[in-house]
Amino acid sequence: MSVPIDAARKFDPARAGEYETQSRIALAGYDACHELSACMLAAALGSGGPAEILVAGAGGGAQEIVTAGPLEPGWRFTAVDPSAPMMELAVARLRETGLDGRTEIFLGTVDDLPADRRFDAATLIGVLHHLPGDDAKRAILRSLAARLKPGAPLILAGNRFAYASQPLLLAAWGQRWRMKGATPDEVEAKLSKILQGADPPHSEEAVADLLAETGFGPPTRFFSSLFWGAWLARRN
């Protein structure tokens, strides 16, 4: 997960260390989402060839790269994240899996990349709902569009409802934590935190509008889990 500098401050070393475990509870189907993201990119690009993939939000377990790398040995990755603790975890995971030699590490934001860099594809997974307001969401999507070749696919994944607008999904999300051993007080604290701590697009239509406003074509949704959705859209 990667966010611009202001939002990235909340991913301190303590939170970074628990990120992978927490993410797999918060998102039922965490691994499936990443696997299908890799499959969708391979289907869009064609399998077996070389490609340069921009991974915006690689911090944590670098799961996008760890999953896609073995599927497509010809792909090379540029991992971008402004959080040093999160990037340290990503680098360690890439070394463990032998993918560090195919990955360029970039500590910073997408805007900090050279303006003339162009990629064959990009991913933005678990980022957009951490950006407050539509202007910030448009800004990162425009930055990605500016660094993609025409027709290049973007994998976008994240939460896509205002949490309070979906009380049944919110209650089921709390039950998911209870299923994984959280006490009633812990569940209540997590529900309070999610209601206060993020600003997702308020609908799937809002996601499509953000993409249309920032240089992308209509999205195809390929994964859904409670609040979460994942889409592929191509740069115009």
UniProtKB/TrEMBL annotation:
The keyword Zinc-finger does not apply. Its EC number is 2.1.1.-. Residues 56-153 form the Methyltransferase type domain. InterPro entries: Methyltransf_12 (IPR013217), SAM-dependent_MTases_sf (IPR029063). It comes from the Bacteria. GO terms for biological process: methylation. Keywords: Methyltransferase, Transferase. It is an enzyme of class 2 (transferase). GO terms for molecular function: methyltransferase activity. This is tRNA (Cmo5U34)-methyltransferase. It comes from Inquilinus ginsengisoli. The lineage of its organism: Bacteria, Pseudomonadati, Pseudomonadota, Alphaproteobacteria, Rhodospirillales.
